[in-house]
Structure to design on (118 residues):
């Protein structure tokens, strides 16, 4: 983590990108749920919740752990997309890209300068 004269830099993933990734995955899953529920039964709900929960996990994690949780979500979702590329995996690829962007473009919160309070 890079330090600035005012304190440690905030490198946690940007919440906006994380939220966009989770919402997009939720919409994709909802579309599949509507299409598949009648044919596949209720078991499809669990399968479609996995990517949504993976993408929501970084949003629910405490700020210090958010980056680690987001990287773990990228790894797990990448495995899921690759393993299911022949069926529904490609539909979650845009959410994966948004999550990666969220990790690579960290929040730009200004560090607190303790010296200014003195």
């Amino acid at each position: 983590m890079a330090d600035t004269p005012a304190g440690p830099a905030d490198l946690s993933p940007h919440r906006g990108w994380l939220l966009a990734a989770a919402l997009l995955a939720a919409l994709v899953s909802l579309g599949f749920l509507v299409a598949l529920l009648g044919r596949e039964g209720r078991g499809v709900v669990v399968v479609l919740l996995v990517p949504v929960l993976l993408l929501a996990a970084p949003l629910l994690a405490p700020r210090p752990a958010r980056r680690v949780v987001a990287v773990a979500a990228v790894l797990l979702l990448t495995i899921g997309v690759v393993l299911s590329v022949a069926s529904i995996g490609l539909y979650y690829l845009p959410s994966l890209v948004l999550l990666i962007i969220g990790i690579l473009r960290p929040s730009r919160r200004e560090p607190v300068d303790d010296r200014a309070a003195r």
Observations:
- The radius of gyration is 18 Å.
- The CA atoms of residues 81 and 90 lie 6 Å apart.
- Confidence is low (pLDDT under 50) at residues 1-7.
- Strands lie at 3-4, 7-8.
